[in-house]
TrEMBL record, chains A, B:
GO terms for biological process: transmembrane transport. Keywords: Metal-binding, Signal. The keyword Signal applies. It comes from the Bacteria. This is ABC transporter substrate-binding protein. Residues 1-19 form the signal peptide. InterPro entries: DctP_fam (IPR018389), SBP_TakP-like (IPR026289), TRAP_DctP_sf (IPR038404). GO terms for cellular component: tripartite ATP-independent periplasmic transporter complex. GO terms for molecular function: metal ion binding. Substrate binds at residues 157, 178, 215, 241. Na(+) binds at residue 216.
Length: 362, 362
């Protein structure tokens, strides 16, 4: 060690209740790489409080530099969609994404990001940390040599931006909409022409009329894309993603190679980013929502009840088919919805009452 | 170092992408003490996921034993109510409590635990992490040589247990109720005989009829006290504490003596316990609520709207008086409610819609 370090350590000890002797030991150090589904500067996902870069920084700080993680946004090292396989094979140690991008590997992956008409932030955390969700996620990913962690959350997402008002289920027929994944499959049941478009291409496609509608995240990130400039109807009822969990995956052998202190550091950093990223979304969505409605001429409203009903029926049908086909999906589905049934009764007496009778004068 | 450790470290390196050389340095080690407002075995507060003991364990694990914290429940080292002064003077390094126990030091401390008709869990976290709340808390505590951290949350608490049904505001007059702090002052405005009773004394007092009603926390912890056995009316509308934040206070000089990695470890452990403790409450309250209503004959209902209105009016009056008297309380109050105003508009389009239209079929 350098003399400067030794002096500093001794001084810190003197000032700081040094009852234990200084610890001197050789400690393994790791230089790892984290790839991501999202671009290198994507707000929330890659930059800002609770993001992938912040997660790397927290781990490096807590480990005193013993676990350094070099972050690569989508396309910097590998393409966005290759993160799962890259970590599975050990090409990179870590990847940041959302599990629902990997439903092609196992449909059950959907449940660890968000399920339409499923759990919100507080509900998901209860299931994940205490209701068996974390263990099931590990079980689903185990055969791919991956260890998954919840490491962020957007909270409630918005339905999205439409160039024309949606008054009935029929108004959805033929609408060309950017909407990925399971939600896209649900809309297709209602006649929507659902399309997969990368975030950077949403604005130009909506502006040129190639698409009529687009879902992205929530007020803050949607405004960054400029979607309000080319579509005025903002449907707010985020039926499809009530709380969208970010995932960190770690190659299983690499994870097992970490000593216990670094494992604990990674686990706690993920939990910290879970709450800190969601808080950031609440703060920034509240401000962006106010700006969009007050200053940008946006018409914000929930989807009509009949449309929500039709979306729910289509969701139920698709999930039932998936459960029928695949035993591990059935196992995860049953755990998730058994948890939700109890959570719903409790939320009726807690958060529902807060939102309907307490936070505003009745 | 022992040979065994060296071999282990080398093996770990070989298996775990050791690109960096092993780090060898002398590191300051700390043996600290944490006292608590709560008993040594109190569920949620002292034991279980996200509790004070779990917080100590996480810090010790992440630091590889360099920051060891010996936990003392209330009465084991000092009485419950002396934690603030003990940390302020440096007698102990850390204390676990809720800030609203210290409103005698500064009324502003109330806002960092819970404010009647105030922010819920997601709202509070947005204000705390990103809306200036954390910085204001540090400002309020600075003159007491304390550095505060949010390190846990109960989520929505319940109004409490009543031996007789409450149908009108008049029914509250003369009711002898265990209810501490600001909520007690609010009830007094409505004629309640509000009393401060330690948790362990609530059940015998309610059983013997010394009191007619009692507030504690939520279904899981209330059931542990056995309150449902001696009062059947469970009022669920937790108007007084929509999300009750646990605080960790650290003596300022001791905090400043920590090296950057241990500071980061403490901060991230607190954030992790914040989300993990709240998730634990959601899970366990949901199960306990179901049991109380289905198996224990409890009549669970929200307070009548007129009672809620009267409680709101009394709260507004008391907060206005506090703001008038004290500049730092005014500053905190204005920051908190300015944040809440924006959060309310956003929550109307996000969580409110989730609870009213999405999680159950409409």
């Amino acid at each position: 060690m350098r003399r400067r370090d030794f002096t500093k350590a001794a001084l810190l000890g003197a000032a700081g209740s040094l009852a234990a002797p200084a610890v001197v030991k050789a400690q393994a150090a790791f230089n790892w790489r984290m790839t991501s589904f999202y671009g290198p500067n994507a707000a929330f996902y890659s930059t800002g409080p609770g993001s992938a870069k912040d997660l790397c920084k927290r781990i490096e700080e807590m480990s005193g530099g013993r676990l350094k993680i070099q972050f690569y946004g989508a396309g910097e090292l590998i393409p966005a969609a290759e993160g799962f396989d890259a970590v599975s094979s050990g090409t990179v140690e870590m990847n940041y994404a959302n599990s629902y991008f990997w439903t092609g590997k196992s449909f059950a992956a959907q449940y660890f990001t968000a399920v339409p008409f499923g759990l919100n932030y507080q509900g998901f955390n209860g299931w994940y940390y205490d209701g068996g969700g974390r263990e099931l996620w590990r079980e689903v990913y185990d055969k791919f040599n991956l260890v998954p962690f919840a490491c962020g959350n957007t909270g409630v997402q918005m339905t999205g931006w439409f160039r024309k008002e949606i008054k009935t289920v029929d108004d959805l027929k033929g609408v060309k909409m950017r909407i990925p994944g399971l939600a896209g499959r649900v809309y297709k049941e209602l006649g929507v022409d659902a399309r997969l478009i990368a975030p950077g291409e949403i604005f130009p496609n909506l502006e040129r009329g190639v698409i009529d509608a687009a879902e992205f995240v929530g007020p803050y990130l949607d405004r960054q894309l400029g979607l309000h400039k080319v579509a005025k109807y903002y449907y707010t009822t985020g039926w499809h993603e009530m709380a969208t969990t970010s995932e960190l995956t770690i190659n299983k052998a690499k994870w097992e190679s970490l000593p216990p202190d670094l494992k604990a550091i990674v686990e706690n950093a993920c939990a910290a980013c879970n709450v800190i990223s969601e808080a950031w979304c609440q703060k920034n969505n509240a401000e962006a929502y106010e700006d969009l409605v007050k200053n940008q001429g946006v018409i914000a409203q929930p989807l009509p009840d009949d449309v929500v009903k039709a979306l729910r029926a289509a969701t139920t049908k698709i999930l039932a088919e998936a459960v029928e086909k695949d035993p591990i999906t059935k196992k995860v589905h049953e755990s998730y919805f058994a948890y939700k049934a109890k959570y719903d009764d409790w939320a009726d007496k807690s958060e529902l009452v807060y939102h309907t009778k307490i936070r505003r004068a009745i």
